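Preliminary data (for renewal application), FE2/S2 (inorganic) cluster complex.
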Amino acid sequence: MTAPHPIAQSTTDLEGGSAPGTDRRRFLGYVVAGATLITAADLALGTSDAQSVVTPPQPAELYDLNDLLTHAALATSNLIAIQLHDDGTASFALPRMEVGQGITTSTAMIIAEELDIDVAKVHVSLADARPELLFNQLTGGSNTTISTFTPIRVAAAIAKGALLDAAARLLGDNLDQVRVKGEGIIEGLTGSISYAELAREAASETTRQVGVLLKRPEQFTVIGTPHTRVDARAAVTGQKQFAMDLEVPGALPTMICRAPTLNGTPVALRNRDAVLTMPGVTHVAEVPTGYAVRAETFGQCIDAVRAMDVEWQDGPLVQQSDGDVRGHLRAAQLPFVVPPIGRTVEHEFTFWFRGNSALEPNCAVADVRSDSAEIWAGLKSPVVAQEQIAATLGLPIDRVRVHVVQGGGSFGRKLFFDAALEAAQVSRAMGAPVKLMWHRADDARQGRTHPMVVSKVRASYSGKQVNTFEQRNCSVRTDFTHGLGEIITRFAAQLPVAGNYAFAQTIYLLTQELGYNFGVVDQLLNEVDLPFNTGSMRNIYSPDTRCAAELTVDDLANRMGEDPYEFRLRTARSPRTRAVLEAVAEAAQWGRSMPAGTAQGIAIHKEYKGVTACVVEIDCRPETVGRRIRNAVTGPRVTRATFAVDAGLVINPRGLEAQMQGGVMDGIALALTSSLHFRRGRFLEASWDNYFYTRHWNAPPEMEVVVVDNGVTQPGGAGEAGVAASFAAVACAYWRAVGGPMPTSFPINHQALAFEPKPFVPPVPASPTDGRNHMY
Amino acid sequence: MPTHTFLVNGRRVQVESDPDVRLLWILRDRLGITGPKYGCGINVCKACTSHLNGRAFNPCAVRVADLGPDDEVTTIEGLPAAPDAGGAEDPDLHPMQEAWIAQDVAQCGYCQPGQIMAAVATVRAARREGREVTDADIDAIRNICRCGTYFRIREAIKEGARRM
Ligand code: FES
Ligand code: FES
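Predicted structure:
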């Protein structure tokens, strides 16, 4: 039963294999025993072998973070399966998490392509934690499509082969006489038969290995065609369910009263009895992060949290403010080592703390019993969450079921499972199921932050040639303990980079690639270990690193008397970079005349096996900067954004465009408006009117995304690719518009506090009652 | 505990509740209507935006006791039955929801029920002034989208308004 499965392509294809320069298309997979047709492939399929690039000056160019994440899967290979149902639909449980980046849609498209079925007939759900997958169930580094593209195609193509087989048998035709007509119908010489009718016929009683040949890219009809998200209707009708929308029996609303200082700890609750008698309240319990209260509604939880009279132990950073942290970072900065040749430019940049809160706050549902536990949450590293929750509860791993729920955004937050772990602790302490949610104020003040960074750049040049370019990033330690770190532990020794890099250093080197022919290039990271709750935000180190580098590139261009675009085009290292630069410049009308106080800015970034370039136009004229909107930060406005992206093989251009648009909004926020302020051990922000993420009034009214096809046949990453070049382009445009010294502190409005901080005790604000006065 | 009576999506409801509980929690935790989302609880993020007697409001900032028996609450679930939904091709959708799908606006989708309810109310407010919705009106919408879908929202509002 292990003979290669006959397939319905021509013999030339079977014998000829792949033409030089195209991807391998022949793979092995499985038909799995089942009542209806089930096919599967090894999740580690399609990972390229060691690459043969010979002269890489920077590690990221040779072997980037995505290669690491993809190769990490090899040792833990396991099967992912597609099932065909007797209603003609196919289903697949994706071992990744959807947080808005569109992978349920692109995965459905990939399956539809190889299975020759309508995208609407493919149902993609999110797999529960599968401990056997180990590190192969981590959603991060924009790696989902890069790592799952081939195995999903293989499983789908095997399914189609088995359907053709069964159709030929039933119709009494030879295999080469049947073909898929489309719409899930197979036709032969004598008649036709549907996938629905074949689902049981094609089923196998045993599991067997079969070979398959994938479609050639020229044959694609779904991949590369714009497709609306598969959950678009559910999202606009309110039917899409997030963790807090689930109805888990007995799981009542639960919140935690948290300390006024960062990571402060509970000492005593002085009025427990009084709190227990408040309306709706059912339970109160102490957990390591504070006092939890469970009630009939979240509104009553908020009231109870506000009523709690608590004695706290201050957190460890109570003597520190962000200015002090900057001092620590400066002191720990690694020295430059490359001797400058010619004239030198040197700049130091500060990137203040930023919040990576999603709009959906940290939340999770937990039902912990004496001998088992069940968790529902938005989790990008569910296996690590499952292991840690099991260890905390003292339960065997297989007694903890972890369900992955679609997330209301992530931006790095959902790599961690703070709320899931807390919910498990609370449920255990109360002996009742809980629906735990962080208040927005908790999310901003005690949640994770993107670490603060001081970045130094030194470059030297003579004539029109840049001879050296060095960058030193010193950052508050980034927490990688969500699993990414463990992947590195396992695989760091196998990396083709020399030396014993720390994990973070490894990530840094694997993600950074300057992209210009600047002679000797040397970029290094150092970290200071301070007890902040950190987590990398969308695009990890790149936005800050690129902003500092690209402003310096503009400085070099100025000094050489060159146009920022022409200078970049002349010094770009790769044809792919030149292509996106030319595309963005043309679409944005680079160099068009602009009124005083307004300007264009341009920047590039290369990561996730792709290349991006961004041009923005910014308006810094007083009438724009000073425009007034209640409780809002207005300031300079990006009036037009043009973004060019070469993301390799594009599955869904519509989704790619959406991700780039979102990335631009992040870039605008990072450059102009969004940061956290840390004062004497407390983050001051407690609301979206304190933390100024881009709002409608900051968003560019004109925007265009240009997808550049450079003939690459493997997909790149999309979810994070839009941020770095946008941030840098806004910073460059701002400098060109206002002139004077280079801006070096980001966001540019950080120094002036634009709001009145809310009280710290009680930790959450009261809900207003005057909503009827603000109707429109 | 007092009983509170009002209309939700065309249905008369009676809820026994402590009078201070904000309507958002009555809808979500008591009535199981989860289209309106929590994002702040202090009338800032606008994720909970719904309509009260046809106008946008934020149920996280209204006590259940402040609703009367004739007050009509519409959440995203009830929008397709609104009087200005007639221009939709699909009777189970409001034209603004159709425009949202046509523009493929949603990313994570968490903010989108609130964005759509705000969009419809913004178009209605402009029409009450005898004009069409403008870019300046859209600039003033306070609903946050942390996924940054603002550009497609802008396009969708204009398209939805044409069909409203
Ligand atoms: S939850 Fe109502 S405005 Fe934020
Ligand atoms: S779509 Fe995610 S917050 Fe708006």
